[in-house]
Design a protein that fits this description.
Elements: H1 6-26, H2 30-54, H3 59-89, H4 102-116, E1 123-125, H5 129-145, H6 148-152, H7 155-170, E2 174-176, H8 189-205, H9 208-232
Antiparallel strand pairs: 1-2
Helix pairs in contact: 1-2, 1-3, 2-3, 2-5, 3-4, 3-5, 4-7, 5-9, 8-9
Length: about 230
């Protein structure tokens, strides 16, 4: 039947978006790279939903989804960081930017872990790869807009932040998902606070606001985790 191929086709569109994002990253057009990461994230959202609606989920779809995600949300943001760091560190060592591809490896590890971890039905353990990719895409766009002087003198901080995000990808830190069993405030406080505060961040910071939103998401997840631990003891 034709309908069984629809989710996998959408997943392939996610993968193609990641390939295009990677191309533009290597060309130094970070805005277009980010745009195609966002397009890939949209396809990633709808492939699983379509598979459930059509009742055509399959093992091959699961494997294909992870492969597409590592291209769009692992390799593409690594290419963005690599391309951004290359001119900033050329006077020190041309090898430094290649460290950016460590993030692609950690993204693959995170995706493999997600496929085997049954605890992540209603939330996440560790930072989801789409969130990480959107963070780096929007951060680099913001840094480019603020002038190369700031980044040129803080390239080491960018690398340290990248390694920290690699840790978050495979960490055991519970992070909430925007899934609602009920629409009431009780039990959904963190989710509503997050959604409400996203709007001013985007209005104030523009594209860079996406990076701020992801950072805020991580902070809220940690706070929510600590609150949950305190109430259960």
């Amino acid at each position: 039947m034709l309908k069984k191929h629809i989710p996998n086709t959408i997943t392939c569109l996610n993968l193609i978006s990641g390939c295009i994002a990677t191309y533009w990253a290597f060309q130094g057009d970070y805005q277009l790279a980010l745009l195609f990461i966002i397009i890939g994230a949209v396809f990633d959202f709808f492939d699983g939903m379509t598979a459930r609606l059509l009742h055509v989920s399959s093992p091959i779809g699961k494997e294909l989804d992870s492969l597409a995600d590592d291209i769009t949300f692992g390799f593409a943001p690594s290419a963005i960081v690599f391309s951004f760091l290359s001119p900033l560190t050329s006077h020190i060592s041309p090898l430094i930017p290649y460290l950016a591809f460590v993030m692609a490896a950690f993204s693959a590890l995170r995706l493999a872990k997600f496929n085997l971890d049954e605890r992540q039905a209603l939330g996440f353990i560790g930072l989801p790869t789409p969130a990480n990719a959107l963070f780096w895409g929007s951060l680099v766009v913001g840094l480019e807009g603020s002038g190369s002087f700031v980044a040129a003198n803080n390239w080491w901080a960018i690398l340290l932040l990248m390694f920290f995000s690699c840790y978050l990808l495979v960490s055991e830190i519970p992070m909430f998902a925007l899934k609602f069993k009920t629409w009431g405030w009780k039990g959904n406080e963190i989710k509503y606070i997050f959604l409400i505060t996203c709007i001013p961040l985007l209005l104030l910071l523009g594209v860079s606001g996406i990076a701020a939103i992801i950072a805020w998401y991580i902070i809220l997840s940690v706070v929510n985790n600590l609150r949950t631990k305190n109430t259960t003891h």
